[in-house]
Amino acid sequence: MKLKMSILAVFLLILTSCGQDQLNNKEVASEVSEEKMLWIVEIEPGSNEVTFQMKLTNNTSAEQIVKFNSGQSYDIVVRDSTGKEVYRYSKGRMFTQALREITIASGDTKTWESTWDYKKDGTRVEEGTYQVTTELKGVVSEGGKLIVTGEFVVPSE
């Protein structure tokens, strides 16, 4: 049975801020009223893999510039119930070392998607609940990092 869980983190970006929040979509829906950048992560576990869809939405009245110091746009870290890391998107990948930026117009969304096959070092992890942390690796015009944490269930084989 496919389970689709949406996790929505809303961050008011302040030059000195650097925050991390755990929110479920019911709590956040009523809070989306002020000008904010939205870092939305949808987690869809399947029988053989989980899909992470990350969306950065500009909910402000002005365009926002996101600056990156490499070709890496995001990172995903999955930990088991003991806190042991079982997956990191960036592990074993190489990214260009170039400064780059993307511009997101007011009301627009930039989307990234990634999948994980439930394997750690070639072996499928045990069924159970896993914590995931996603981080936008760029800095938005107004400063601060966008990080969201959540959890999902890896089904039995």
TrEMBL record:
Residues 1-21 form the signal peptide. Transmembrane segments: none annotated. Residues 43-138 form the Intracellular proteinase inhibitor BsuPI domain. Keywords: Signal. InterPro entries: Intracell_prot_inh_BsuPI, IPI. Pfam families: BsuPI. This is Intracellular proteinase inhibitor BsuPI domain-containing protein.
